[in-house]
Amino acid sequence: MNAVSNTNSIASEATLPISDICDVSVVLVNYNTEHLLERVFAALFAARQSLTMQTIVIDNASRDNSVTLLRSRYPDVELIANASNVGFGRANNQALPRIRGRYVLLLNTDAFVAEDTLTKTFAYMDGHPRCGVLGVRLAGESGTLQPSCRYFPTPLNVFVAENGLGRLFPTVQMIDDMSWDHAGTRACDWVPGCFYLIRKSAIDQVGLFDPRFFVYYEEVDHCRRIRQAGWQVTYFGDATVVHIGGESAKADDRLTAAGRQIARLQVESEMLYFRKHHGLTGLLASLALTCCGAGLDLLKDLVRPRKDRPRHAQLQKLKLAFSLLGPTGWATRPTR
Asked: How many CB atoms lie within 10 A of CB 11?
């Protein structure tokens, strides 16, 4: 079956015997992160406590020994071993026919839960039946806060953020606004996919990830659809997950060489998202603002050259965007 079309087949709880239903189905997509698997599972199983848990791993054709490790050390984990890398969103979608949990937790292999994370987040979800998706406080190894409660991207706020123009546009709601109390609980537009707790009934209604997004923007799009369907997206600050970030990309020289492939995937997903949710006008606005950003890049270099400034980042983004217009059908389909 084509990976793009193998997406939202959903096994409803109503079709499962009661004895087969568990508290949570944890889904992890692995790509060359063998060195993290023991740590992520140790943290996850320690946090399980009295919860009943199903664990599913989709391996995206890792070139390390991930599959061998999973089969030998974790025989109770349900493993789907792909012959090729189908992308993050599509890989998560592959788990849908197997789901047995009342809740579904999408967890990155570089995200490590605390012992009380699962019990606290499930208790919140149980007490707030309209919460469809829940995220938590994210921090790095050193405890540094990471953006955990985000606002939807628009052509304007992406332009303002990428060009460092926040002081000139104080009324623009920035995607990663960090000026709020991270200890509280609040509604938000979207939460990052490294710890992404979803109510199964919300998946039954909305589905999971749009397969057009190979990587990046899949959870942004999903949260938008969740909210449009009347569910709430919530940031829960009373639980913390340590998130390293970028481990799969670091392990793949083909993806990280000069950042070219990653940059191309980021630009492609951004274009697909703006076309889907803002129409052709939104796509054209994004391209026009990127043109403005490229002009600002050149002007900054003329006025005050700096060696530590990424040279012409907006110009490079503009070139990528125009090179993708044809292959993506003006941002209506993915290139891979």
From this structure: 14
Q: What is the pLDDT averaged over residues 173-189?
A: 88
The residues spanned by each domain of the chain are 15-150+188-250, 253-325
Which is nearest to 78 in space by CA: 105, 102, 99? 99
Residue 230: strand, helix, or coil: coil
Tokens of 73: 């050390």
Q: What is the pLDDT of residue 14?
A: 42
Q: What would the pLDDT profile of 51-87 be if each residue is shown by its tens digit?
A: 999 999 999 999 999 999 999 999 999 999 999 999 9
What pLDDT does 74 receive?
Answer: 96
Helices 34-48 and 66-73: crossing angle, nearest 10°? 30
Asked if 274 contacts 171 with a C-beta cutoff of 8 angstroms, the reply is no
In the predicted structure, residue 276 carries a pLDDT above the cut 80: yes
Terminal CA-to-CA distance of the chain, rounded, Å? 15
The DSSP code sequence of 241-290 is EEE---HHHHT-HHHHGGGHHHHHHHHHHHHHHHHHHHHHHHHHHHHHHH
195-199 vs 131-139, strand pairing mode: antiparallel
The string of DSSP codes covering 46-75 is HHHTT--EEEEEEE---SSSHHHHHHHH-T
Closest to 131 measured CA to CA, from 26, 234, 25: 234
For domain 15-150+188-250, the CATH superfamily is: Spore Coat Polysaccharide Biosynthesis Protein SpsA; Chain A (3.90.550.10)
Contacts of 105 (CB under 8 A, 6+ apart): 24, 25, 26, 27, 118, 195, 196, 197, 198
| The pair of three-digit structure tokens given for residue 59, joined into one six-digit string | 């391996």
Burial letters 82-107, b for 16+ CB under 10 A, else e: beebbbbbbbbbbbbeebbbbbbbbb
